Amino acid sequence: VQPNNYSTFYDDQRQNWSIMFESEKAAMDFSKQVCIAKCNSSPVLDSVLCQDLVLGEGQGVETGDSLEIAYMGWLFQNHGLGQVFDSNVNKDKLLRLKLGSGKVIKGWEEGMMGMKKGGRRYLIIPPAWAYGAQGVAGRVPPDSTLVFEVEIKRVKLVKECSGSEGQSVSSRDSPAPSPVPNSDGFSAD
Hints:
With 189 residues, the chain is α+β, with helices and mostly antiparallel strands. Helix content is 13%, strand content 30%. Its EC number is 5.2.1.8.
């Protein structure tokens, strides 16, 4: 994924191909289909597939960073997107997550590493990296492969936690007001 609706790909012979799309949506839709095609062409999906949709700005996130995330999750069924089983896209609250805390499925932790603020990524997560053989009663059948579209709305880097006197140092926040109360050191400006 490149700025101005470009995407760059390599073929089997490592030749570079650049494609320009008419809109950001067309570029994102194409990138999603590339990720689904990668999944469908894998004999066994044994790791998380990641496809950037929007690169974002700033430093890549790593273990210990606190994030606020908008997401949508689908079941992967019949070689494509099945039903939505979870989403916070039309809700007031973003998901708050400290990367590496183990509070979300392993595939999310792995798939979000290196993302940047404002970045959007498509993740296809095999059962072993998701809910495994147990699934989630009433929502995720056992041994389900999951698809997520995640967007990092706000980031607080672990290195920005405190200044030399222990005072809070501003994080790289978006200019929009936070939809959740000010806590955990996130500033609301």
